[in-house]
Design brief:
By secondary structure, the chain is α/β, with parallel strands linked by helices. Helix content is 29%, strand content 20%. The strands form five sheets. The chain has a six-stranded mixed β-sheet with strand order 3-16-15-19-17-18. Strand 9 and strand 10 form a beta hairpin. The N terminus is likely disordered. Bound molecules: iron/sulfur cluster (SF4) (2 copies). The site of one iron/sulfur cluster has 15 residues, from helix 14 and helix 15.
Length: 456
Amino acid sequence: MLSFLRKSPADGTTIRGTFAHGVHPPEAKDDTSKLAIRQFPFAPSFVVPVSQHIGKPAKVIVREGQKVRRGECIAEPDGFLSVAMHSPVTGTVRGIGPVPSITGRMVEGIFLEPSAASSQEVMHGTPCDVATASVDEILTAIQRAGVVGLGGAGFPTHAKLKIPEGKRCDTLLINGVECEPYLTTDHRVMLEHAADVMVGLRYLLKLTAAKRTIIAVEANKADAAEALRAAVPSDLQVEVAVLPVKYPQGAEKLLITALLGREVPSGGLPIDVGAVCTNVATTAEIGQLLPTGQGIQERVLTLGGPGIRDKGNYRVPIGTPLRFVMETAGTTGELGHVFLGGPMMGQAVSSLDIPVTKGTTGVIAFTADQTGPLTDRLEYPCIRCGACLEACPLFLNPSRMGLLAKHGRYDEMVAEEHLFDCFECGSCTFVCPSHIPLVQHFRVAKTQMRRRKAKA
Ligand code: SF4
Ligand code: SF4
């Protein structure tokens, strides 16, 4: 699983090696990769869930009827593993109550109505100067800006960037791989906000004290690699590495293997092998927000898939109802499946009554005609072809796990097949000729095991 170098025959660019296994789903990025980021219209109402991140929900600090400004903090971090929430609009708090989330659980949310008379200018806060701020001041500024991993994981970024005592970061990796089909937000951010990425890098370098910085981009985004190289300031040493196109290369542990030839141990973190990895859009966001003291109140996402009429990359206010997004973008026929995120690792939504959150990388829609042949197809028994073993980037045995899952033998899945190492990339499901929904089985098994643990 070591990385290697080779020359691209086309332009002489050095292309890095990659990790073992993985798959090549159709990229399906051409519809939106050339479309510049546009502002999405404001909805007539918004709802901001206070839990959009891994960790403790933020604490609401506004009350019903209160006037708020766009960018104003409306919920404060509650403890270290928590981040602030900011109002996406200038308007009025219409209520505080339960809202549905993608998981089907109800979470607390703040309902907002925009003011028709407002220019929706964003409120600035206290700037954090990278030259003079201490490490703790930068970490606090990132937490108060509400920054979480914009690649979809939703982990609070300040927590990820705090180097644990006794650990050392030698390499800072900026993840611009975006290997999920259809998604092109990171691509556009790298092209249009390369300067912000560099500003963000300065903050990250101060936090990590890394000696080496690599920005990773896949070969299907060569223009983004060029834009980044051109934006590197003369006083920074930044390598822009181009990787072969392969799924799921954007998973940080695989990216570390591909670039550094290091393997993050099972249950370990990148810092255990001397690396810190941050998504490129998150880095750009830090570069935009911290110098002005602003908080996250919108994010760039891809509206794509054959079911969307006005495809594109849009800057969408956080809390915009998905129903408004779909109605505004329009559909090309009767709606079938809608995914938040890409079709490989994203989640199909069961209701359009959920809002866009900080973790929404894209809204990918298919019409009923397009999803019918996929969802209605028959599942056959496992023929032991081994394709799923060849696809799994973690060298797990999806075939055996699938058989165990079918019989509810979840304990064996964990003890013998390392179920919890599976990060649900869907590569095994993608290649299975018997159409066995392996990754869905693994999700159910994990949920059952977590429930059992909680009960115990
Ligand atoms: S979903 Fe899990 S088991 Fe399947 S290929 Fe991905 S990591 Fe391996
Ligand atoms: S790919 Fe499907 S049919 Fe082939 S071994 Fe894996 S589970 Fe069985």
